[in-house]
Amino acid sequence: MSKLLIKNACVIDPINGIDREIMDLCVSDGKIVESVTNPDEVIDAAGRLTLPGGVDSHTHICGTKVNFGRYMSPEDMRAGRTARRSHMHATSGYCVPTTYGNSYRYAKLGYTTLLEGAMAPLEARHTHEEFNYTPLQDTMANTLFDGNWAVMEAVREKDYKRIAAIIAWTLTAVKGFAVKLTNPGGTEAWGFGEDVTCIFDQVPHWEITPAEIITSMIKANEMLNLPHSVHLHCNSLGTPGNYQCTLDTYNLIPDLNDKRQSLYSTHVQFHSYGGSSWSDFCSKAEDITKSLNSKPQIVFDIGQVMFGKTMTMTADGPMEFNLYRLHHNKWSNHDVELETSSGIIPVFYRRQSLVNSIMWSIGLELALLTDDPWRCCIATDNPNGAPFVKYPEIYGLLMSKRYRDNEFETIHPKTGSRVVLPALDREIDWYELAVMTRAAQARALGLVEHGKGHLGIGADADIAIFPLLPDTIDPGVDYEAIISGFSGTNYTIKGGKVVCKDGECTVDTAKSTIWSKANVPEEYNMTHDERFRKLFDQYYTVRMSNYPVQDEYVPSGYCIESEADL
Amino acid sequence: MKVILEVKTRKKPNLPIEAESIVPKNFLDHDADLKVWKGNKKLSLDEVFTKRVEGTTSYADKVEVVIRGDSSRIKRVGEYMAAGKITIENDIGMHCGNFMSGGEIVIKGNAGSWLGREMQGGRILCEGDAGDFCGAGYRGEKKGMVGGMIHVMGDVGDFTAETLAGGTIIVEGNAGDLSGVDMRGGTLVIMGDSSRVCGNMKKGEAYVHGMVREMIPTFRNEGNVEVDKTVYTKFTGDIANRGKGTLYVKHFEYMR
C-alpha cells in the first residue's frame, strides 16, 4: 500500500489538542502512523492550514427524497453543470446536484464524511444505491423512526427493551447508522391529514405524546450502546413561537451517556422562533442557547439559512404542506407506509424579506452564543437552509464581525429590532472553527474511535490542506481570504489517497458506508417476534423477509458493532 | 447590412445543428469565427452555411440576417438576440428566439417547438405553423415569456403560452391542448379552437375566438360581455389555484 508524507503542515487537530503546530504527517495503508520510510508521495504543505477531513453531521444528499427534489426541479439541473473530465463524471444541479456533483463539491471543501440526515427505512435501498455513487466520502444514514408503528405500540406499552429490539433489528436490516426522529408523532398524524403542535399533544389514534416517544427512544438508544445518540428534529419546525416547544423538549432530555451527548438536536435555527405570527416574528436564540449551555447532554447543529435559491426537503410532511400553503409553489408530499412521511418544496431566501433576514441572523446567533464549540456544529441542513457550497461564507461570517456588520447593512432594515446579532462581538477563531466543522461532529457521531475527525496515530488519513497561512491572516479583517481559502482545498486526502487536488478530483472511488449493528440477546431478536411479523403481513406492501437490504447494496460497508445491555 | 446564410446540402440533414451564435450583433465583426455545434462536435459556421455579406454597418439594429435553404433542423437561432432582424425563408428548428430581448424575427415557413421561449422583448412573426410550447418557460421554469410579441399566422401545438408572464401571443389558427396553462400575466389570443385552456391560471388575459373543448370546470362563469364588438363568455380563475386570471371564450363545452 502507498505511503504518504505531508511536510510542514500547520495542523489544527482539536481532538488531540493541537493548535496551529507546524508538523509532518505520515500516512501508511490509509492510516496516520508515527513515521514512514521511503514514502511514495511527499506533499509539502509549506505552512498551510491542515485539518482533519470535514464531517457533515446533517445533510441531505442521497435517497428518495433528495432524488424527488431532482425530478421536481429541472430548472435546477440546468444550473451548475460541469462537463466530464479525466476522473470526473459530468455533474449538474445547484441546490440538489447529482450524486457526483455532491461528492466532488464536498471534496473540494475538504469534507470526507457525510451523514445523510433522514432515510426512510422502507426506502433504504435507494439511499444505499446513491451512496455507492457518492464516491469520495464515507457516508452513513440516519434512519427514521418518528412514526414507526411497531415503536409507537411499544412506547404505549412503555416496553423500552422492545423499542431497543425494534431499533436494533431495523438498523441492521436497512444498514442504517443512527436513530432519527423527525417531528415525532407529527409525521404519523400527517398520514391522517393532521399534525401535532408540540410535545404534549396526543398523537391522533395512538394515545401517546411526542414527549413519550422522545424520552423512550433516548432510553432505548442508550441500551443499545450505539455510536450516535438519538438525532432529533423537534416538533413544530418553522412556526413563530416554537422556541417554547424546543425548550420544553430540551427540559426532558436525561443525561445517560458519559462518553457523548444523549441527544443531537438538529437545525436548531428553525426551532428558535419567537412571536405569535409572522408579523411579530423574532429571534429567541438567547433563550435557546441559555438552555443549551446548561445542558451538556445535548449537542446541536445550527441549520444556518443563507440567502438565495434552495430546495427544502424533510421527512416532516405536515410542515412542508404548511410551507406549500404559504408559498404556493410546486410541492410534493409523501407518506411512507408505517414509518414516516416527507415533503419537498423549493424556496428562495431573500434579503428583502424580514422573516428570512431574521432566520439568517438566528443561525449565527446560535453559534456565537454557545459557550462550548464542542456542542455546536456548523451545518445548513443542506439543502434546506442553503446548499453546502455556502459553508465558506458561514465560516467567514462567524470569524469576522466586520463581515457580519457589512452583510447586516444589506438585509431588511427592521431586522435589528428583532435580533441580537449586531450586539455580538465574538469572532470564532481557527481552533473553534476546526472544532465546529469536524471534531465536534466526529465526537457527536461517536466516530472518533473509528478514526474520524482527528489526526492522531491510528486515525483514518482523512486530511484537508487549505491554501491558507493562518498566522498571516487576520480573519476578522480579511474575511474574503477566509471565504476563498475555504472554498477549495489544495489537497483533500481520503483514506490516504489524494482524492481532490486544487478542485480536480483525482480518483474514481475511496469510500465506505458506515452502519451500526447492535447485538441483542436471542430473545430480543425481532425476526422471531410473531407480533412484529404480523405488522408486515397486515399492513406493509413488503413481507418481512423481503424488507432487509441485501449485502450487495452495501459493497463497501463498514459495520460498527455494539453489545446491547438488555 | 445584410448577411445571407445559405444552409449547405448536408449528408445527414436530419442531424440538428445548434446555432446560438446566429444573432445579428455577432456579424458586425466580419472576421469573427463563429461556431455552431453538431452533437458534441464544434463546427465553424462556414462548414454549415455559405455566408454572403452585403453592405457594412457598426450598429446591430441595422443588421439583417437572412437564412436560406433547409434550416428546419437549425436550432437556437436568435438566442439572446437584442437588436436587428433575422429573416428565415423556410422552416426553422426548435428554440428559435430563446430569451430574445429586442429586434425582430420573421419566419416565412413553420417554426419548431419552443418558439420564443422565455422571451423578454422584441417581435417574432411566424407565417406558418409553430410547434409545441410556443412562448412557454422551459421545463420547471416558473415564468415563460415575460415581454414582447409572438404572432403565429398558422396553427400552434400544445402548451402554447405555458407559464406566460408578460407580453402578447397571437395565434391566428388553432391551438393544441392545454394552451395558457399556468399563465401568470400577459395576453394570449387564439383566433381558432383549443382545448383545456388556461388550467391553473394565476393572472393575465386570454381570448379564444373559436371553440374551447373540455373547458376547465374550476373557472367561474361571469356571464356574457362585449369586447371590441364581439360577445364572449367571461370566466375568472383558475379558482383551484386562487387565480385572478380572465378568460374570454366565444364558444365552449365542458367535458362530457
Structure report:
The complex is a heterodimer of chains A (566) and B (256). The mean pLDDT of chain A is 94. Chain A is globular and about 65 Å long. In chain A, helix 5 packs across helix 8 (210-223) and helix 13 (391-399) packs across helix 14. In chain A, the strands form 5 sheets. In chain A, strands 1, 2, 3, 4, 5, 19, 20, 21 and 22 form a 9-stranded mixed sheet that branches. In chain A, strands 6-7-8-9-10-11-14-18 form an 8-stranded parallel sheet, with helices on both faces. In chain A, 57% of the residues are buried. Helices cover 30% and strands 22% of the residues of chain A. Chain A has 566 residues and is an alpha/beta fold. Chain B has 256 residues and is mostly beta strands. Helices cover 2% and strands 38% of the residues of chain B. Chain B contains 1 helix and 18 strands. Chain B has one helix at 45-48; strands at 2-7, 17-18, 35-38, 41-44, 49-54, 64-68, 74-75, 85-88, 104-107, 123-126, 149-152, 168-171, 184-190, 194-195, 203-215, 220-227, 230-237, 245-254. In chain B, the strands form 3 sheets. In chain B, strands 1, 5, 6, 8, 9, 10, 11, 12, 13, 14, 15, 16, 17 and 18 form a 14-stranded mixed sheet that branches. In chain B, a hairpin with a 2-residue loop joins strand 3 (35-38) and strand 4 (41-44). The interface between A and B is small, with 9 and 7 residues.
Shape of chain B: elongated
Q: Please work out how many helical segments of chain B DSSP would assign.
A: 1
Unreliable stretches of chain B (pLDDT < 50, length at least 5) are none
Mean pLDDT of chain B: 95
Report the portion of residues of chain A in β strands: 15-25%
Number of DSSP-assigned strands of chain A: 24
Radius of gyration of chain A, whole Å: 22 Å
The end-to-end distance of chain A, rounded to whole angstroms, is 42 Å
Largest interface in this structure: A-B, 9 and 7 residues
Please report the number of helical segments of chain A: 17
The helix fraction of chain B, in percent, is: under 10%
- Helical amount among residues of chain A, as a percent range? 25-40%
- Radius of gyration computed on alpha carbons of chain B: 19 Å
Q: Give me the secondary-structure category of chain B.
A: mainly beta
Strand fraction band of chain B? 35-45%
Q: Oligomeric status of the shown chains? A: heterodimer
- Structural classification of chain A: alpha/beta
- pLDDT averaged residue by residue of chain A: 94
Through-space gap between termini of chain B: 57 Å
Largest sheet report of chain A: 9 strands, mixed
